[in-house]
Write the structure tokens for this entry.
Amino acid sequence: MGNLSEIKRRRTFAIISHPDAGKTTLTEKLLLYGGAIQIAGAVKSNKIKKTATSDWMEIERQRGISVATSVMGFEYRGKKINILDTPGHQDFQEDTFRTLTAADSVIVVIDVAKGVEPQTEKLVKVCRMRNIPIMVFINKLDRPGKDAFELLDELEQKLGLAVTPLSWPIGMGSDFHGVYNMYFNNLTLFNPGSQVVEEGVAFSSLDNPGLEGYIGEKAIELRDDQELINGVYPQFNPDDYLSGKISPVFFGSALNNFGVKELLDVFIKIAPNPIGREAEERFVDPEEDSFSGFVFKIHANMDPNHRDRIAFVRVVSGTFKRNTNYKHIRLNRQLKFPSPTAFMAQKKSVIDEVFPGDIVGLHDTGNFKIGDTLTEGENINFKGMPSFSPELFKYVENADPLKSKQLAKGIDQLMDEGVAQLFTGKHNGRKIIGTVGALQFEVIQYRLEHEYGAKCRYENINLYKTAWFVSDNIEQLNDFRARKALQIAIDKEGREVFLADSKFALEMAQQKYKDIKFYFTSEF
Ligand code: G4P
């Protein structure tokens, strides 16, 4: 139980948003508080800008940045905070889903003018499926935007979140005066353009006439709003937040460094310290003595001469130690890591030990794939690393017969990294690559050529969706297999998938084969 104090002081979370809502800006301001960086502008945005460069060149540049920003650790008020970076581009949403499995909570950033946007909806849905505690930061209050009550309604309706505001804006845009924080009962005044963080003025009650002295007539509006809030929204209860039942909402302006400190101060008080993870065999508690962890991300080296990669491991329980033998469960092999890296700010450094909630980077020469578990010996397989049914498909063919080995190896490793999914037609052995975004096809082609010296060609395939399928009814299963023989493929794990060429075909199959269950994520 020696780790207990280390566990209790850790907070590992991800920031999610629709591109441009202010995720990068908020991350940067948080790091400034931790003293992890000294100047604004130090965190490179990892979004893929639609500029003159072609997308995949931009992606290569981003890959360089994203090693540095994958995990950003810093100390703040005695807490060790780990921010997990999530890619902004929607074609890389699957990376974000996987990163969420390593986070214990999330902060959702919403643009006050745009409200809830599509990508936020998708990401929050995944968080809700797992009951991840969610805090909401409504950003850009220095700009005109939607009414605060309207935004709360939108959060409830579009995201299905039960919310309660813990801070409240006083005006907005050019009329923005500041925020009243209901958690600390204090008022912070907005000073446009100033990055200086004013201490909040404490108020034991909003009836205090002193309030007028700070915000004039806005005091009446604030009191009215508070009355309405008290009538409509539940009192904040930390346990409901921790179980994912209610999400506290904050208002501010990341660019102006306004409302960020309040967010961080409440965050360190209420956000969960590392929580355990469900494995196929049992639940693993962070306070257990024995080390366990799982790979949620693999990052290939940018240098083609060194094909090693970094596997990012989330420590679930125990202490991970340098130069110690751990069991790679899938391979049933002992592995030792002489130079594990930890991530502080944007720097990597070799460390001797890491604790639950932390992320450790391990040099990998091809042993890992996403979802792999490491332990001190116990056979544990962590759950919750789903593959989603891809949305886009192409046949992949070898375009250079002399390099077929390189191609096979390249595809194999890229799939382990989780860039895309590979299916092999059962009847013809043709390989199909399935992705969630169009960019991945370019990435794969480019990386195969530059990292593996192999060339591939794509051919179109008419496919609507893939669905994993299982059944106890062997008769139905065999009938389905026989009738759909040309439309069945095998995934990398050897599981059967149905290649449905239309929505109609899929629905027909679901109707006809009532005892067969079709799944659209690999976790079933
Ligand atoms: P993202 O990571 O979620 O994609 O968003 P990012 O932080 O890059 O912010 C998107 C744009 O919104 C940036 O402007 C950023 O400066 C701006 N922004 C962030 N927070 C605020 C805020 O509180 N108020 C206002 N008015 N703007 C904000 P940009 O012009 O696209 O980029 P840049 O050239 O400033 O980097």
